[in-house]
Amino acid sequence: MRGLLAGMLLGAAAGAAGTTMLNTVTYLDMVARARPASTTPEDTVEALSKKTHISVPGQGEDRTNRVAGLGSLTGIAAGVGTGALLGLARAAGYRPGTVVTGLVATLGALLGTNGPMTVLGVTDPRTWAAKDWVADVIPHLAYGVLTAVVLNDLDHG
Predict the structure, then answer these.
(1) What's the pTM?
(2) 153 neighbors 13 (Cβ within 8 angstroms)
(3) To pair with 53 at 20 to 30 A between CA atoms, which of 25, 75, 92, 141?
(4) Cα–Cα dist 60/127, whole Å
(5) pLDDT category, 154, cuts 50, 70, 90?
(6) pLDDT bracket for residue 2 (50, 70, 90)
(7) Which stretches of 58-97 are DSSP H helices?
(8) CA quadruple 51, 55, 59, 60: dihedral, nearest 10
(9) CA neighbours within 13 Å on the CB side: how many for 34?
(10) C-alpha torsion sign, points 70, 72, 74, 80
(11) How far, in Å, CA of 81 to CA of 125, rounded?
């Protein structure tokens, strides 16, 4: 049991590093293309709030700021959570190598972020243009690569 917990914690650390990389690549894209930040994280918080009947407290700017913070935290939770699951799987014996681990991490992060948004009706990836897919996949791929490399390095300590 202790090995599984350690694996999960190491995976969470790798996922945190990957999340930082994803955010960095996303912000660099915003700078390079002068594009605004996506509102889908905040829209997801709003949709989840309506679906669960759990309101975000506050009025006006206070509530808007809380929704923005919660939106950012959902991305962190998805990245750290994906890493934790990968670390748990590795501790249980699943060790396919860095490339496959990176692809699994990428897919996990894509599903962990876009899945809830799609289910809640915030977005529909079937309607995305090629540039939208590129803008979404590249940061997630960067996440997956760094998460896998860090997991591998932590394993070989």
Answers:
(1) 0.93
(2) no
(3) 75
(4) 32
(5) confident
(6) confident
(7) 60-91
(8) -30
(9) 0
(10) negative
(11) 22
CB-side exposure of 40: number of CA atoms within 13 Å?
17
pLDDT tens profile 45-87: 999 999 999 999 999 999 999 999 999 999 999 999 999 999 9
- Of the pLDDT bands very low, low, confident and very high (cuts 50, 70, 90), residue 157 is low
As given in the structure block, the two tokens for residue 147 are 């998460």
HSE at residue 154, side-chain half, CA atoms within 13 A, is 24
pLDDT higher than threshold 90 for residue 1? no
Give the tokens for residue 50. Answer: 């309506």
Q: What pLDDT shows up at residue 125?
A: 95
From CA 92, how far away is CA 53, in angstroms rounded? 38
